[in-house]
Amino acid sequence: VNNCGLQLVIQTSSITDKSKPIEFRINKEQSSFHNRLLQHDLEKTYSGRQDNTNFGSSSSITFPVLQRTAEEKILNSDRLTLERQKLTVCPVIDGEDHLRLLNFQHNFITRIQNISNLQHLVFLDLYDNQIEEISGLSTLRSLRVLLLGKNRIKKISNLENLKNLDVLDLHGNQITKIENISHLSELRVLNLARNLLTIVENLNGLDSLAELNLRHNQVSAIKDVDTLPCLQRLFLSFNNISSFEDILCLADSSSLSDITLDGNPIAQETWYKHTVLHHMMQLRQLDMKRITEEERRMASVAARKEEERKRESHKQTLLKEKKRLTICNIARQWEIQQNRIALVASLNQDKDNDPCQINGSAAYVFSEESRSLDTILSTAVQGLSVLESHLVEVEGDTLCLYGAGALECLDRNWSVQTAGMIVTVSFMFIEFDEIVQVLTKLKIKFPNSVHLKFKETNLVTLQQFNALAQMHRIEQLTVDPQGNPVVSFTLWKYYVLFRLNHFNLQKINGAKVTENDIVMAERLFGILAYVASSELPHYRMFSLIGESRRKQFHYLLEGKGKKFGIGSEESSDNRRNGGESTTRAMLNYMTKDFHMEKLEEIKERKTFCQTYVENLVKEAADINMKNESLQKLWPQMFIELVRDAVIEIRNKNSYMKLCLQRITDQKQ
Prior knowledge:
38% of the residues lie in helices and 11% in strands. It is an alpha/beta fold. Among the domains are: 293-343; 387-547, Alpha-Beta Horseshoe (Leucine-rich repeat, LRR (right-handed beta-alpha superhelix)), CATH 3.80.10; 599-667.
């Protein structure tokens, strides 16, 4: 206390009690600590008095009262420094209404109070205290600098009357949101470093703001900065900014000249500096380093390359999206087609099972149901009508065909390099019967293709796999369970191995083919090929196999010569079929249309036979009825015949003349 050069008065009486205050006068010459005040022991000594001042509540609070000597007032008339005095409250300052600068740094003050009378105060420093709320400042309309750093403030509030504020320091607090400052049009410096901010917003109205410090927060996005016409320095070091899009509004600020982004994830990117400099050509400093013209030039070149890369990336994204939408459209059309087929099959089945129920009324109902289903399914693809109904795509060594229209691509003039590169051919949303028709073209166009994939191709029977025997070579076969019911058959893989044995398949659905699999396939289906070749009539067998196969089969039946004596045509056919045996060749593929034709033919034959038999039965019945009638009439008829004969020959001469006359008439 001896070094303070101040007069400190502790007043312990209540407001209504005007008793004489207890004074502690210190008249020693002024020292370097002439503005330091208040020893904690003095405050402690008098804080326990019962006769305390009441400040609008039922509890009583004791405040130290500060008074300076005339000499001190002359030396420091407009300023007072009370830092590091271990203050827990703001003292009452009497007779100092002219103060312009007040310093309470490094104390333990928890609330701003007892300074409302200092209406000329311009500078207030409450750095490093324990203040939890901004309050008690409404009368300080002249305040220009307010320093509240390193406190416990959680919300910006109660600054409505501080319209002349020039500097606001709130760093090192617990603030989570920028708010209630849009009226501070004169504010030039705002420090919100080391808080808990996650987004920068609500900066509209700060027309004079030149410096904004947001270091060491949790900021991930920035808004409204481009609305600050005077902002020159922006400090964003050590936040959570990860992409340039998060700070895109900074590129629209024409006044910004100094910015820091170091310590953010974005600063780790290789394109960081070039992108920032390209979009903010007005910057003079980045991360506290001056920007050279060479750096600007390099940034411009790098930015152009980055833009080209982004455009290409965007183009690829659009192509991928178009591909996705096209595939969705193809899938929906496929679904419509399958539902229509299922509906028609259901109607036909109903007609066959109960024909008497399909009268005029019932037929009308079915027609309405069919039209209703078509309407519903067509609506599903209404928004995709502008898209392609098929898609052809080459991905690496794979040719992907989506939709039946994609099969037409096999008629294109493929380059030798591209055609030779294709190893895998994938079919999706295409009827297997339509695929079979182009298998010959496939092996000619893409001679190196060894892997076939089928998804949503309506593989429903084992005999459909017979069609693959005409391929040049197959090493892998993949049949997706989706849209291929045949995969649900337990023995389908063994049938494929047996029927396509001449290809020596390596994998089926990704699983490697073992020797045991081949043996099992032979055991399961070997007898089938034997029955097909031995029990089938020769004329039917000849209609199913090729010309060279017919020669081979005749040769085997007749037992003449040796195998190599069959002829060059047969040998070339054997090579073409990869060693396919004649017995397996009997297991032929029958298209759905051909199968339907056969069914129609069988149906017609059945109808013809039924009609023929009915006619025979009817004729036999008529004959039988006539026979029965004859049996009944014959006795009477016989009697009449005998009687007529007896009467006719009763006169022998007349009978002889009559006979001669008949003979004569016949000759004439």
